[in-house]
Amino acid sequence: MTDIKVVDAICGSGKTTWIFEYIRQHPERKWVFVSPYLDEAGDGNEKGRIQKELPEFNFKAPSGTPSKTADFLRLAKKGHNIAITHKLFTGFTVEVASVLAEQKYHLVIDETIDLVTFFEGIGHEDVKFLILAGMVVCTPNGQLHWNEEKWPNYAGRDVHIKQLCELGCLWLYGEDVLIQRIPPTCMKACESVTILTYLFEASLMHCWMQLNEMQWEYYYPDTLRKPDEIKQILRDKLHFVKHPKLITDLQRTHQGLYKSNVFNVGWYQKASKETLERVKKSIEATLKEQMPKGEVFWTTFKDYEKDLEGVGYTRAKKINGVLRKPFVSKNMRASNEYKDCTNCIYAVNIYPHGSLDSHLRQFDVQIDKDLFALSEVIQFIFRGSIREHKDMHVYILSERMLKLVKDWLALDT
Questions:
Q1: pLDDT tens string for the chain (413 positions)?
Q2: φ, ψ for residue 344, nearest 5 deg
Q3: Considering only CA atoms, which of 19, 212, 5, 206 is closest in space to residue 112?
Q4: With contact defined as beta carbons under 8 Å apart, do 296 and 341 qualify?
Q5: Which is it for strands 317-319 and 238-240: parallel, antiparallel or unpaired?
Q6: What's the Cα-to-Cα distance from 11 to each of 72, 220, 225, 248, 328, rounded to whole Å?
Q7: Residues in a beta bridge with 118
Q8: How would you label 389-401 residue by residue, b for 16+ Cβ within 10 Å and e otherwise?
Q9: Which of 59, 246, 282, 334 is the most exposed place for a label (fewest CB within 10 A)?
Q10: Are 249 and 243 spatial neighbours (Cβ–Cβ below 8 Å)?
């Protein structure tokens, strides 16, 4: 059985430093290091952080020739230490698992990977067509199988659906929503797995491991900084911006009762252009009046980025010779790119997607909605200057999200 350890430690505790030292202590092992970003894992001839920090291990990053999966297989068959991204790992096949087992690899996953997600590679109407045409068959628990008896040699437009069905990846929710669950084959093929994260129980990977009845244990290395020590720094260095009247009023009913769903994706979908324009103007004013001069990073749901782009937090700048946009994906993790930014604007209210949550519940797996939201906002905040324990002003528009952070820090709300 694969030994799976979860190092669940607060951001800034030193997890990456610890894992690099742990790898140094085990030069006899073959390693696969999985990171969210190319600048950590490297890309072909471009060195990433792990190649720079552990030059003696000669970590290879697969090239795109003929494909990254094919090049990974080539490197793995030779027993090289390899660094890859989350995205590449989620596309691995049974053939990859076989090589990982044969070569006795040890796997390190930096930040959790969403291994149960919506499959967006096909439209809702096309899903209905596949079912009506009898190309796929749905089992009672929702898993999809390709109809080999009726369509044995299919090689048309939806061949990727056939391949995913053959891997046991696809599940139907409702009439036309596909959910993809990556098989645990590759993780189980490795000698050991070490997952570096924070608030693991809030992650979709935690749900995925429960779905697959996988066993793991928590491990907290002695060299890591303690949570209370980090939280005290955050209490001293994070400065939460007070909500202007408009932002407060948006989160109240006509009777003055609090509304918890404002700034979630459903609210944005229903919000008028006029409302979004007012929110933008409010952000502009708040940045100018309540936040000191400094570099800014901000987020909202990607579809509404243009609606909220305003003066003072929109224009890209050259940082160390590279053009950088202030807008950051709401789920960015494990990146140092914005560590010089002293102002953070967070214009989202996070919930797990309802259909995904319902799918998990069908299999008696539940995700804590508030813990899920807290994990997202903490990870985002730690992209900024606070990761280097420098002062940072934070403007969280959602009262719910702000309360979650303050409660976590044990601050008065």
A1: 789 999 999 998 999 999 999 999 999 999 999 998 888 888 867 888 999 999 999 999 999 888 999 999 999 999 999 999 999 999 888 899 999 999 999 999 999 999 999 888 889 999 999 999 999 999 999 999 999 999 988 888 889 999 899 889 999 999 999 999 999 999 999 999 999 999 999 999 999 999 999 999 999 999 999 999 999 999 999 999 999 999 999 999 999 899 999 999 999 999 999 999 999 999 999 999 999 999 999 999 999 999 999 999 999 988 888 899 999 999 877 577 899 999 999 999 999 988 899 999 999 999 999 999 999 999 999 999 999 999 999 999 999 999 999 999 997 65
A2: -125, 130
A3: 206
A4: yes
A5: unpaired
A6: 30, 13, 10, 30, 18
A7: 179
A8: eeebbbbbbbbbb
A9: 246
A10: no
How many of the other CB atoms lie within 10 Å of CB of 404?
Answer: 22
For the question of whether the overall pTM of this predicted structure is more than 0.90, the answer is yes
Structure tokens at 50: 């792990």
Query: Could you give the CA distance from residue 152 to residue 103 in angstroms, rounded to a whole number?
Result: 34
What SS3 string covers the chain?
CCEEEEEECCCCCCHHHHHHHHHHCCCCCEEEEEECCHHHHCECCECCHHHHHCHHHCCECCCCCCCHHHHHHHHHHCCCCEEEEHHHHCCCCHHHHHHHHHHCEEEEEECCCCCEEECCCCCHHHHHHHHHCCCEEECCCCEEEECCCCCCCCCCCCHHHHHHHHCCCEEEECCCEEEEECCCHHHHHCCEEEEEECCHHHCHHHHHHHHCCCCCEECCCCCCCCHHHHHHHHHHHEEECCCCHHHHHHCECCCCCECCCCCCHHHHHHCCHHHHHHHHHHHHHHHHHHCCCCCEEEECCHHHHHHHCCCCCCCCEEECCEEECCECCCCCCCCCCCCCCCEEEECCCCCCCHHHHHHHHHCCCCCCHHHHHHHHHHHHHCCCHHHHCCCEEEEECCHHHHHHHHHHHCCCC
Structure tokens at 105: 């690899």
How far is residue 6's CA from residue 20's CA, in Å, rounded to a whole number? Answer: 16
